[in-house]
Design brief:
With 209 residues, this protein is of the alpha+beta class.
Length: 209
């Protein structure tokens, strides 16, 4: 289970700030396989995705195309049969996030930015409570009453492929409280970093079974 979830949240998860986005044109979801994604990364002067596990598909997408957001380049891999959803654009700017999932089962990988978090230097040196707060906020966007018994199981600092960027991979678990009145044990993995002027979380979870 951890290997599966970690492939989604950690193996090729990446967030790059707006400095590297000013020299290339805006684009939609950069699907079309590893070659297409790596060509887009190369256009930004960034290293390629080195490995995509069997049964997975890469995603490279700009978050923050609207003027109401700061642009970030996000990349990760997801199972081939997961459906990708992207932020919507209208006259008021951008809304929504980057997400891939098998929505019938409730299994998703979701990009989340902590509002008003500011830049956090040396994120790998933050205490466990910092990551507990960040991830619990990410999973509770529909309200704190939808889960209970949240717990961080493991915290593992890692280095990214570009400029030694810091990421922290966190294993976690919680109990989902459904609208039907029953409880579902869920386990997940999150990749946490701080790029630009915020803290970013890419988290994924599925049922314990």
């Amino acid at each position: 289970r951890r290997a599966f979830l970690n492939k989604v949240a950690g193996t090729t998860a990446g967030v790059v700030g707006s400095t590297f986005l000013q020299t290339a044109e805006p684009a939609n979801a950069f699907g079309g396989g590893l070659k297409t994604c790596n060509a887009k990364l190369a256009s930004y002067g960034l290293p390629p995705i080195a490995n995509v596990p069997s049964g997975f598909s890469p995603l490279v997408e700009v978050y923050g195309k609207g003027r109401n957001r700061t642009p970030l380049l996000v990349s990760f891999v997801h199972p081939l049969d997961w459906i990708v959803t992207l932020p919507s654009q209208d006259v008021n700017g951008e809304d929504g996030t980057i997400q891939a999932g098998e929505y019938a089962k409730g299994d998703t990988a979701t990009f989340y930015i902590l509002p008003d978090s500011g830049k956090v230097d040396n994120i790998s040196e933050q205490p466990k409570d910092f990551f507990k707060n960040a991830i619990s906020r990410a999973i509770s966007q529909k309200g704190d009453s939808i889960y209970q018994d949240f717990k961080i199981i493991k915290v593992e600092p890692v280095k990214g492929d570009y400029n030694n960027q810091q990421y922290v991979i966190c294993d976690f678990k919680y109990t989902l409280l459904t609208g039907a009145g029953f409880e579902v044990d869920r386990q997940g993995v999150a990749s946490v970093t701080s790029e630009g002027n915020a803290v970013e979380v890419l988290w994924t979870a599925s049922t314990r079974q």
